[in-house]
Amino acid sequence: MREEEKLGEMIANLDYSRSFSDNFDSFIAFTLFPFLANPDKDDVANYMSHREDERYRNAMLKLGDISEGYHDALGDIFMDRISHGANGQFFTPDCICEFMAGILSPEGEHICDPCCGSGRLLLKGLQRSRENKLDPTIYGGDLDHRAARMTLLNLCMNSARGDVEWINSLSNEVFKTYHIDRVNLYGNWMSYVWQYTPSTDMDELNRQRQDVIRQLMEGGVWYERQFEDPKKPAEVPEQPQASPEAVAPIQEPKRQQPVQLSLFD
Fold first, then answer.
1. Which distant-in-sequence residues (6+ apart) come within 8 Å of 26 by Cβ?
2. Do residues 151 and 164 touch, judged by C-beta distance below 8 A?
3. In terms of pLDDT, which residue wins out, 89 or 169?
4. Whether the Cβ atoms of residue 111 and residue 136 lie closer than 8 Å to each other
């Protein structure tokens, strides 16, 4: 049995009274929770109701194990168990994503995918950039909120930085934004997510972020600023361990607008 199939069975067994789709959403929310700097009440309620459940913890650890090497396991499970191609949701195979990243060999400051699905093109672009000693800012958007959250989780487990949005990329209508900051905690890069909607009080959110930054700095934790020259970063995370424990914060919650509608700029 493939590792994705094993994880799928673990997710199916989380709650026998609910559908696989509901279990999948609950698992995504549970695994994302440690990365969220400002979880909403639904995030908190879901996490608190399952935090002592060993099945959730084991599934989270399994996802971390099989996500090594910038691999998108969530997308495979979603296609096999939920979408079955509905609404054209067939995600590009990993081998094709790797091939595209290889021939394009991204060298820019940003990597953009305005219809990112589960984020596998972004993952392979990030991998190739890091192999080239670059550290791009990621932008991903999708009309499907579940897909956007899969992308967010995949990027967080690989210590990315940037923005993921639940968005209609044709009309540019944004429903929710997830801004990914990054800190270096105990020598490891960790992602930290600030979530907000168009109605969010941004002044209050910025105040909260500055408080977190101040506390981190006072505690001796180095938080990352945008590099002035993205092609000569101070330090590029090398092949981060995809671990659900990897968490962390920082940066202005300003939505990165893609310069052009192409995978790599």
1. 14, 15, 18, 46, 50
2. yes
3. 169
4. yes
